[in-house]
Amino acid sequence: MKLVSYPSDGEWRAGAVLASTVYDVDVALIGSGMPGLAPRATTRELLRRYGGALEQVDAAVRRAAAELPHARVGDMSDLRLGPPVGDPGKVLCIGLNYQDHVAETGRALPAHPDVFAKFASTLIGPSDEIRCSYVTDSLDFEGELAVVIGREGRDVEPSAALDLAAGLMVLNDITARDLQYRGTQWLAGKAVDESTPCGPAVVTLDEVGDPQNLELATRVNGVRVQGSNTKHMIFSVAELISYVSRFLTLSPGDIISTGTPEGIGSKRNPPLWLKPGDTVDVEIERVGRLRNVVR
């Protein structure tokens, strides 16, 4: 199943995609005799209530597709989709998680995951404009795989960690490098409002398969600037979920972005900074594609 957010009456609502058509999840649940999501029919609320029973949600959506015409929202390509989870309680990111990226930064391999945070206000949809070039002239790209949490968990072992995951999505950790390196903390450069495209959907693991064998590519104006496979991560998705859960409780809708491979703009000679008018694509096989223009 693929979960998206679509706009309705000024709010983001949870949708599910079947054969490129988006269906309203709340309508599907109610039509199947299950408790709905109102008054807040967001993806986060869906995961809070049904994160441990997404197969039931899938069945309800498939039933609605066949029997409830009013559950149909429209074609995925015709809708402006938002961040699949637009109101996460936590947005956690991992730095230095690919060996080639560590090498290009000149740092030593980390013994433990390097964790920093963003805020919900940074998130934008898979085709939204990146409107933060006014903040910096050192705007950089970082194509990444992100995992969205579906069940609450604390202190979980790596062997059980993927059971907490609702699914995976694509994320571009757009960074203002000058702000990032003004001090010893990264927050200013990583948490600019409306800087972080994600989506287009949360794709459940039964559709994706092994999260540690996915091809990733980033392109700027059609030119490939990053390319790798998630098998080259230093810490796997399961290990990252487990590690984070050691010191905080993970909740439905939380996001963990798992790091970027080599090729970032700041480590090129000369540096490749994003500028207004540039188009940035990030694509991960079986997960999806972001396509965003810088303004």
The unreliable regions are none
* Mean pLDDT over all positions: 97
Helix content: 10-25%
Distance between the termini: 33 Å
Shape: globular
Q: Count all strands and give the number.
A: 17
Backbone structural class: alpha+beta
The oligomeric state of the chains shown is: single chain
| Beta-strand percentage range | 25-35%
Q: From the alpha-carbon coordinates, what is the Rg to the nearest angstrom?
A: 18 Å
Secondary structure tally, helices: 9
Q: List SSEs in N-to-C order.
A: EEEHHHEEHEEEEHEEHHEHEEHEEE
What can be said about the biggest beta sheet?
Answer: 11 strands, mixed
Indicate the topology:
Blueprint: E1 2-8, E2 11-18, E3 21-24, H1 25-31, H2 43-50, H3 54-67, E4 72-75, E5 91-95, H4 99-105, E6 114-118, E7 123-124, E8 139-140, E9 143-149, H5 158-161, E10 165-172, E11 175-176, H6 177-180, H7 187-190, E12 196-203, H8 205-208, E13 215-220, E14 223-229, H9 237-245, E15 255-257, E16 279-284, E17 288-293
Parallel strand pairs: 5-15, 7-12
Antiparallel strand pairs: 1-2, 1-12, 2-3, 3-4, 5-6, 8-11, 9-10, 9-15, 10-12, 13-14, 13-16, 16-17
Helix pairs in contact: 1-3
Question: Would you mind describing this structure in some detail?
Answer:
- The protein is of the alpha+beta class and 295 residues long.
- It is built from nine helices and 17 strands.
- It has helices at residues 25-31, 43-50, 54-67, 99-105, 158-161, 177-180, 187-190, 205-208, 237-245, and strands at 2-8, 11-18, 21-24, 72-75, 91-95, 114-118, 123-124, 139-140, 143-149, 165-172, 175-176, 196-203, 215-220, 223-229, 255-257, 279-284, 288-293.
- The strands form three sheets. Strands 1, 2, 3, 4, 5, 6, 7, 9, 10, 12 and 15 form an eleven-stranded mixed β-sheet that branches. Strands 14-13-16-17 form a four-stranded antiparallel β-sheet, with no helix packed on it.
- Strand 1 and strand 2 form a beta hairpin.
- Helix 1 crosses helix 3.
- The radius of gyration is 18 Å and the shape is globular.
- The relative contact order is 0.19.
